[in-house]
Amino acid sequence: MAMPQPSVTERQSSILSGQPGKKPRQFRSGSLRWALLGPALAIIGLTIIYPLIISFISSFRQWRLIDSPDPGPFVGAANYTRALSDAGFINSLGVSAVYIFLSVSLTLILGLGIALILQKPTPLNVLTRTFLIFPFAVAPVLKGFSWRFMLNPEYGVYAKMIGAVIPPLKGYVWLGHEFSALLVIAFSEIWGWAPLFALMFIGAIGSIPAEATEAARVDGATNFQIFRKITLPLLAPVIYIVALLKIISAFKMFDQIAIMTGGGPGDSTQTLYYYVYQVAFRNLDMGYASALSYILVVIMAIISTFYVRTLLKGD
Fold it and tell me: For the segment 118-137, what is each residue's pLDDT rounded down to a tens digit?
């Protein structure tokens, strides 16, 4: 009488287990998971969680490195209440607000304008779209050095071009005046972000039903009316999301300011992040700098909450 032959599955099980006719032993998934995650969690704890805890404790201490390399006594919430009367911190709040408004609004306007120009899939437009990501890929430090060089009143190419088109601005020191310095820093950031926003808007415009615009044209609507009544309302959710994303990025502005102006002239370009840097690494007031950092954490958490809630809602 012929013996039954083992199935393919049983033969594979025998090979994996090393013993014929036995199923492979299952590893305990929980132990294996923690064994694999352990090194990564340890690195995160040492490089992120531990410094956060230490800095939070330091925010309640009086600690100036000039006086002592060790943290001083606990002062409660004195470092936090000090920020309310600190003229430098209040000024940095105003500078950050102006910078965020300029950067976000101009980026949205320019990005939307580029998207409207390149929305038709012609060969030239498709080729142009492929190059739009390159400005965003440039490192912020490189942006700062490039814009500072190109706006030099003696040999900068941007300064020469602006002076040729607008003669009164010939030889104008763009980084030497309060408002123009902040405006230039904003444009150095807009130069990188506007093309990225344009790509996002092009994708959003492409998802608008063609029937809606065609029906509007049949009714005699102009291009501007179609944009104002159809395109813009349908793009509103995307505009809201990218605006929040840009606000978060603008709030963290540091690199170009450190390279181009150093917070000057005076304190006209001293944003919140740069002011915390000055308090910590120039004034060496680590306790107060830690408190300011956690004030920034709270502000960023509020902004990020709006952003995440918007994404989860799918609006």
Answer: 888 888 888 888 888 888 88
Give Cβ neighbours of residue 183 (< 8 Å, ≥ 6 apart). 102
Q: Calculate the CA dihedral of residues 82, 252, 113, 167 and round it to 10 degrees.
A: 80
Task: Give the residue among 260, 56, 296, 252 at the shortest CA–CA distance from 143.
Answer: 260
CA 208 to chain centre: 27
Cβ neighbours of 213 (radius 10 Å)? 16
Residues 256-293 have pLDDT tens digits of 999 999 998 888 999 999 999 999 999 899 999 999 99
Global pTM?
0.82
Write out the E strands in the chain: none
d(CA 194, CA 175): 22
* Rounded alpha-carbon distances, angstroms, from residue 278 to 48, 55, 247, 267: 22, 16, 22, 11
